[in-house]
Amino acid sequence: MGSKALLFLWPLIAGFWPVFASDPLQDVFPLEARGNIMFQADAARFRGPDGPIVEVAISVPRDSLLAENDSARLSVEIEPLDRRKRSLGRFRTEVRLPPAASREDGGFPVSRGWLRLFPRWVEGTVGLRVRVEDLDRSKRGLVDQLRDKRLDGELAGRIVPEGEPAVPGRLSDLLFAWGPSATVDADVARGGLSGVRTRLEPNPYRYYGLFQPFLTVYWERYPGEGKEAGALVETRRVLHLPDLLEVAAERETLAVSAEATWMLRRYDLSGLRGGAYSMEVTLHRLDGAGEPLAQATGAFQVVWDERSWMRSQAEFLDIARVILPSPEFERFEKLDRGAQETFFLDLWNSRAPSESGAINSLERVFEERRAHADLFFRGQRTGMLSDRGRVFIRLGPADEVRAELNPHDGNLLWGAIPEEMAADDETGDGASSRLTKRRSRFDNRAYEVWEYATRGDPLLPEYITPGQKLGLKFIFVDELGTGDYTLVYTNAPGTLQ
């Protein structure tokens, strides 16, 4: 098959190819899945009588499922991975999604179902791959329906930190909880440590702030090898990331115990700025000699904007991808969720200052344009992410739109595009002109020409460079006949392409 044929088929191939990270052990929990069901998962290791125990907490957004409340049937598959990213087996179960607590009852602000699973630990495990499938709902595509493919989502990440043993030492991993139940301190002996853990409602998002201003963290301490005398010292710190500024600290002397013990701590976060933080627990000898006996750390997010709680990480990145020029988006993508929220708040307020608590006027313009794009430019993906949607959101409505749904004669693409380019005194040496040269006299695909008499109404001033010529033009073509219009020509600066 020739290179031209491959280029033509690539959009079709890409539409069906699953997109997952090339290295499943590159990311660490908590993670958000990709696919049709964008669930969230967290995992923590504990030490049991017979070796390591792993607990996986999953939050499933109900609006991505067909059924409501207790009628939703899901298949959950957890696959342990070794250091070479090879599968060590599969743990699969079918569950019914339990009803979620309402916000009024102290539940998560968005209607989500919570699952807790305890897959069997396999020696050599370094990471986990988690897949959730909706057993009540098929995918939309014809091929998928013929094959009875269900809506699903998948994620994979590392659970054993680089260079650390798989079995927890003196401290377990940190378990981030939504809040302790009323019975967490009652009858601890019943069920042992696992009984204590099950009384906690997990928080696989690790979000705190607006709807839950108290950080709740649980961990376990295990006895060391051989006999120990005296006492140990445990320090607990909350640090702001990435500068490691200490915002809370405790120090406690502990009696050495021959049995495993547990600890549950709560911290008031109401005075902290949105952003990323880390909880750090360190176990020392009483005299402070030598290296720490054990340390457990875990990052969490403080989020104060309501919309940040309601949006998935993928949606958050989609918004940034549409609004921000490429260099800024690359920097934004590397930020944690709390810092991304702060970035957006600063972005809106620095360009259109608003009173505290009021809806920012510039953000309101964005939301209005986004709603219009999602309504009128939707194709195989949301309208906001289409080429027309991106231009509309950034520049507002064009002064003139010429739409050719079934062009013929002199309006066919092979002649119309060169004429539009010639009107702009363009040389025709760009990528758009090469696309035009390949068009035949029989190419009657639909297209639109958008013209802005001046510079439009830029959402952000960064879109237009100083000295930019007046009059912007964009040509979009429905290359595949699916309603997805691709930008094939523009005289706009690179920040708008």
Write up this protein:
The protein has 497 residues and is an alpha+beta fold. Among the domains are: 20-168, Immunoglobulins (Immunoglobulin-like, Sandwich), CATH 2.60.40.10; 311-496, no CATH class. It has eleven helices and 22 strands. The strands form five sheets. Strands 2-9-8-5-6 form a five-stranded antiparallel sheet, with no helix packed on it. The longest helix has 16 residues, at 361-376.
As a percent range, the share of helical residues equals 10-25%
**What is the residue-averaged pLDDT?**
81
Strand order of the largest sheet: 2-9-8-5-6
The count of β-strands is 22
Percent of sequence in beta strands: 25-35%
Q: How many helices does DSSP assign?
A: 11
Oligomer: single chain
N-end to C-end Cα span: 31 Å
- Give the biggest beta sheet: 5 strands, antiparallel
Structural class: alpha+beta
Give the radius of gyration: 27 Å
- The shape is elongated
**Which residue ranges are poorly predicted, with pLDDT under 50 across at least 5 consecutive positions?**
1-21, 141-146, 426-435
